[in-house]
Amino acid sequence: MKYYYIENGAQVGPFEVSELYNKGIRPETLVWCDTMENWTPAWQVAELRSVIDSSIVRREPPKYNPDGGAETPLTADEMKKKARDEKKTKRSGCGLRSLISLLILVIIAGVMIFTCPDKQAHQTAIKQEFNAAMSEKMGPGKGIIESVIQMGSKYVMGMAAESALNELLTVDNYFICSVGRMQYEGREHVTSIGVFNHIFTVNKDDIIRALDRAEQAARDIKNDETSDGDIIGTVIDALRQLF
Fold first, then answer.
1. Which pLDDT belongs to residue 179?
2. Distance of CA 60 to CAs 57, 66, 239, Å?
């Protein structure tokens, strides 16, 4: 079935029903087809009701106010003002979040500055790992004499490690963190990183492996008991091989 309809006082058509969608047909729009005697409002034609439904822009119901029934619709100026206020509120919210984020970053940076480890902390951390490696490497003594010898050796090695660290280790403070470095063979090697009052450095297992290599090298050269100077050299070689 094809229909004509009146638009702006003029006859338009004919169109199939499928062609009338989105043509702006209103309930009161006059339509006619060859089965009708006169022009008829579209709402009275059952076949066109779906066309009318699709062409009408549906409005949202007004918000319900429990105190006074439905809210009074806003004027155009009021709607513009409301939109500006919403944008201003949104910008204020973003600004507040940015301020809070900045404050948190400042607090974290302040804590990092006040807890930034110094050179002594780097030396202590490396020496602790070194002593733990020495204890594990020597193992438990089988008797009093052997225990005393091991304690003496550990003490000497500890002093040698401290001497080596004093000679080789430098620490740069970057306010929020510090970096320990050792320079040898014309190159700088990062040995440790300090942040939040904690030092990240080599562990005892790495030190044990380095000591084993250094001791083997010393035995290959000397094939004899070492002097204190040789012990210090062995420790320095071990520290160099770690980084």
1. 93
2. 10, 18, 77
